[in-house]
Design goal:
The structure holds two protein chains of two kinds. Chain A is an alpha/beta fold. In chain A, 37% of the residues lie in helices and 19% in strands. Chain A folds into two domains: 240 residues, Rossmann fold, CATH 3.40.50.970; 124 residues, Rossmann fold, CATH 3.40.50. In chain A, helix 2 links the parallel strand 2 and strand 3. In chain A, 52% of the residues are buried. Chain B has one domain: Pyruvate-ferredoxin Oxidoreductase, domain 3, CATH 3.40.920. In chain B, the strands form two sheets. Chain B has a six-stranded mixed β-sheet with strand order 2-3-1-4-5-6, with helices on one face. The two termini of chain B are 22 Å apart. Classes of the chains: A alpha/beta, B alpha/beta.
Chain lengths: 375, 176
Amino acid sequence: MSELIMSTGNKAVAAAVKMAKPLVVAAYPITPQTEIIESIADYVEAGDLKARYIPVESEHSAMTACIGASITGVRVFTATSSHGLLYMHEMLHWAAGARLPIVMGQVNRTLAPGWNIWAEHTDALSQRDTGWLQVYVSTVQEAYDATLMAFRIAEDNRVLLPVMINMDGFLLSHIMQPFEMTEPGDFIPPLDLPHKIDVNDPKGYGAMSPANVHYQFRFDMEKSMRASRTVINETEAEFAKRFGRSYAPVEEYFCDDADVIIVAMGTLGKEAEVAADLLRKEGIKAGVMRIRWLRPFPLDMNIKGKDLVVIDRDCSFGFGGVVAGEIQARYPDAKIASVIAGLGGQEVTYEDMAEFVRSRKMGTEFWFGIPQEEQ
Amino acid sequence: MYEIRIHSRGGQGGVTAARMMASAAVKDGKFATACPFYGAERRGAPIVSFVRIDDAPVRIYSQINKPEMIVILDPTVMDTVNVLDGLKEGGSIFINTHDDVDFPAGFKVYKADLTGIALREKLVVAGSPIVNTPVIGALAKLGLFTRESGVKAITETFADPRNTAAAKAAFEEVIV
């Protein structure tokens, strides 16, 4: 094993980008993501990354510049967070619809008002219908590894859709953990974009797609999103074989014999393992499912007959927790106690999560921190 | 799991101290994480940062509420901050001071005059004595990590040999 380096989540993503060698990076700074693009700018300045770094005047322009660069068939990266992501919204649909394998580091941060820079997943979840693949990571090492894998998955010709790597603001973007800066070697094959602009073979781009063809383009996206499940599995298996670190679309922790499973994403899903350890000492058979890939949505969660305590660091107002709702939609028999917790960086400890399990009321929604009589 | 909370002021290098502490522990073969309090840091304002050291990977991201040890890089923060908040019974306190300090009974108290050491070693940047590298020497003496790993953690962060010289002086000054 090579030497372990202490690094923030942000710097690990930037280091992975350096390894993946994109030719173009276009980005606009926003807390808590800024360290990613600052680090990349430093690499470019120092000549360690031979890329064109385009500082733009807004996130909308950042994504537009990425789209323009990507259509020429080169590898492209950007990063953003929160309001920056929402400002890209229109162009997120465009990037996916134009089948461009752009990779984006996305640091999950809540939305104003009031102004708050801390962790929440509502920003990325509000973009879940844009056609981007979404992975949520939970350690600095995983942030690095997932970024490397994102390029390979996005650029696979069975996918050709953009990938968003989600990382909890401050909790993961700014924590320092030891990680191994693995050299990917030829793990990421050269990009071969079948529809790239070629002056020797001119084609029209952005033309009208009338009603009799548009749905076919959309079904083709859906087919690729479905196929991406296979590509993700293959890529994660190949990564494990080469580098010894294995990941699954849903990471399971003591789920086989569990009566109750905590379901969460990001750092909450990792700390939930400590809650499960605590509960097992009390005689409660608890496990954890940490959803990593939310798009494509996991269709093979083994949850039959188990109580699920789904912790959403998000809320769809007038509906409820987004993850709880999606699980219920795809697994109609799922027994769910929904917990809304951690909004805007609200502190949620493993002890709190253990208490969610002990005091769970199946079929209800519970807002952590709100008095019972107001729920 | 051993949990440490560091009290300092913005600009004093408390977060970098946390990183060097975690890095030194990792070089000893332990697992460690370091993080700042997730706030808007301002120069001169009291800030806290955290270090967790364990024999297994650290899976906790929430804040440290019951530390085993507190490290006070600037004793003047005690005018406005209850630095002992949550410190476990029998826990350790390391404080940068040349004065006698009274803490309630039940804690192990260690001290070194890191500011004085920094001034003697001419480890001064923009008029401020640097205390975040000497503290690594002091904490090595307390057995948080080995002296060798502490030196490596410093030298990979700061090339200037005055940092390791000050850490060595602090190592020698702390009475265990």
